[in-house]
Structure formats: C-alpha cells, structure tokens
Amino acid sequence: MKLLLAITAVVAAYYLQCEAKTFTRCGLVQELRRKNYPESEMRDWVCLVEHESGRRTDIIGPPNRDGSRDHGLFQINDHLWCNDSNIPGKDCHVTCAELRTDDITKACTCARLIFRRQGFYAWYGWINHCKGKPLPDISMC
Ligand SMILES: *[C@@H]1O[C@H](CO)[C@@H](O)[C@H](O)[C@H]1NC(C)=O
C-alpha cells in the first residue's frame, strides 16, 4: 500500500510538472533574442533568471516579508506588477498566472517594463549574485 502511494505520488508529480518548462541556458538566450532583448544586457538577464527561477517558467516563490509572492521565470512580484486573480491588473496588466506559462511573451514584456523603471536593481537575484560578478558564459549560444 505504501509503495502504491509512493508510485501514485511520483506519477502525479510528473504530470503536474508537464506544463512547466526549464530552459537551457542557450534556449533562454535564443528566446530573449527573439523578444529583442539587447545583446549588451543578455548575460545579466541570463544571470538574473538563473538565480531567480533556475530558468523555470512555472515557479512561485515563497511569501516575501510583506506577504507578496514572486512569479515565473523572472520572479515578478504580485504586490506591484501582476494581479494574483483571474483579472489582469496592476502595472503590467496581467494575471500572475500569465507570468508562469511556457509562452514567456507576457513575462518578457513585464520584465522590460520593470527594467525601464528600476533597472536590474529591481531583482535581488541580480544584486546579490550578478552585480559586479562574473556573468554566465553565453559565447556558445
Ligand atoms: C485584481 O483582481 C480582482 C478580482 O479578484 C479585482 O477586483 C481587482 O480590481 C484587480 N486588481 C487590479 C489592480 O486590477
């Protein structure tokens, strides 16, 4: 019985993950190039995404101190940028679920808006792990 439960859990976990996507480093670079992210910022974006979400599209972060949460590839905050209901809203005019889909178009647009307002300083993942540090090698991408 325990074994059956364990197998069920593994199978369920597999299917729940089906929707999720983990980009390879070069896959991410290609996708960001397609969205016209400038080449001069590319390694910073890759570094940011790797530290914020591990390049996974479906991630919801643990609650922040103010109770807000961070969503998707860029770990975008629902206090300011997305509405955590089924009605698109806040500054990016999206639902937070739309920032966690495999199609990263909306997440990329929202991340650009955040960047225009605050630069990379909007992301602790970038401040703590990328700013002034060696950036990921994308020369093979
Ligand atoms: C977010 O969604 C709720 C419905 O759950 C809606 O009442 C609210 O106006 C929306 N907020 C924004 C900022 O659009």
From TrEMBL:
<dbReference type="InterPro" id="IPR001916">
    <property type="entry name" value="Glyco_hydro_22"/>
</dbReference>
<dbReference type="GO" id="GO:0003796">
    <property type="term" value="F:lysozyme activity"/>
</dbReference>
<keyword id="KW-0326">Glycosidase</keyword>
<keyword id="KW-0081">Bacteriolytic enzyme</keyword>
<keyword id="KW-0378">Hydrolase</keyword>
<keyword id="KW-0929">Antimicrobial</keyword>
<dbReference type="GO" id="GO:0031640">
    <property type="term" value="P:killing of cells of another organism"/>
</dbReference>
<dbReference type="InterPro" id="IPR000974">
    <property type="entry name" value="Glyco_hydro_22_lys"/>
</dbReference>
<keyword id="KW-1015">Disulfide bond</keyword>
<comment type="similarity">
    <text>Belongs to the glycosyl hydrolase 22 family.</text>
</comment>
<dbReference type="InterPro" id="IPR019799">
    <property type="entry name" value="Glyco_hydro_22_CS"/>
</dbReference>
<keyword id="KW-0732">Signal</keyword>
<protein>
    <recommendedName>
        <fullName>Lysozyme</fullName>
        <ecNumber>3.2.1.17</ecNumber>
    </recommendedName>
</protein>
<dbReference type="GO" id="GO:0042742">
    <property type="term" value="P:defense response to bacterium"/>
</dbReference>
<feature type="signal peptide">
    <location>
        <begin position="1"/>
        <end position="20"/>
    </location>
</feature>
<dbReference type="Pfam" id="PF00062">
    <property type="entry name" value="Lys"/>
</dbReference>
<feature type="domain" description="Glycosyl hydrolases family 22 (GH22)">
    <location>
        <begin position="92"/>
        <end position="110"/>
    </location>
</feature>
<dbReference type="InterPro" id="IPR023346">
    <property type="entry name" value="Lysozyme-like_dom_sf"/>
</dbReference>
